Amino acid sequence: MSDTLSPAGSDDTADDAARTATRGTSDRVVPRVAAPVKLRSSESGESATGNFYEQIGGHETFQRLVELFYRGVANDPVLRPMYPEQDLGPASDRLRMFLEQYWGGPTTYSERRGHPRLRLRHQAFKVNPEARDRWLSHMRAAIDQLQLPPLQDATLWSYLERAAHALVNTFEE
Ligand code: HEM
């Protein structure tokens, strides 16, 4: 679970593999350095570079995502009362900063809020399956409006879906 919710860059497996040194026949240490991977969608297409945050359009995209999402929350009779502040702006900023950090953007979230500890921070709220499904339906509608390429859409969605399931903290109605 901590994997699902921990920030980008915390999985060092690929780096470790790239740094692994093997001994050649001459007993010399030959470093194995992984070649950078270039992804192209077609022969003439630009290569896809940058981390996921950059690939989907950086700050602007995340800003739009949370704006669209909170429009849905604002009209949701179950979710809206859960948000303690009258103004949803600060909550929207916190979610945006968290997602930006998670996907490899600025680390402003942790600078301002410390370790995310999302399970703990959601403990005060009744996150039952209904709340989760409503949260996810507003998120799905928001992502649909971003019109991301299918791969990025699926990547973002599968993370959010798993994270939302991991945050359920009660089955009481
Ligand atoms: C499963 C349904 C969910 C519900 C009902 C829910 C509800 C809430 C509520 C009521 C707050 C307090 C608003 C605030 O003051 O910031 C909050 C905060 C937050 N939520 Fe959720 N949430 C859900 C899922 C998620 C998911 C899946 C993520 C991340 C992937 C997430 C990330 C956050 C973050 C980053 C904060 C602000 C934490 C802080 O720094 O205080 N939430 N959530």
CATH topology of the largest domain: Globin-like
Mean pLDDT over the full residue set: 86
Instruction: Give the number of helices.
Output: 9
- Taking the alpha carbons of the first and last residues, their distance comes to 24 Å
Percent helix:
40-55%
Give the percentage of residues in beta strands.
Answer: 5-15%
- The global form is globular
**What's the CATH architecture of the largest domain?**
Orthogonal Bundle
How would you summarize this macromolecular structure in one to three sentences?
The protein is built from nine helices and four strands, in the order H-H-E-E-E-E-H-H-H-H-H-H-H. It is mainly alpha-helical and 173 residues long. The protein has two domains: 10-48, no CATH class; 52-166, Orthogonal Bundle (Globin-like).
Report on the architecture of this protein:
The chain has 173 residues and is mainly alpha-helical. The protein has a two-stranded antiparallel ribbon. The protein has two domains: 10-48, no CATH class; 52-166, Orthogonal Bundle (Globin-like). Helix content is 53%, strand content 6%. It is built from nine helices and four strands. It has helices spanning 2-5, 13-19, 52-55, 58-74, 89-102, 108-113, 118-121, 129-146, 150-166; strands at residues 21-23, 29-31, 39-40, 47-48. The structure holds protoporphyrin IX containing FE. Protoporphyrin IX containing FE binds next to helix 5, helix 7, helix 8 and helix 9.
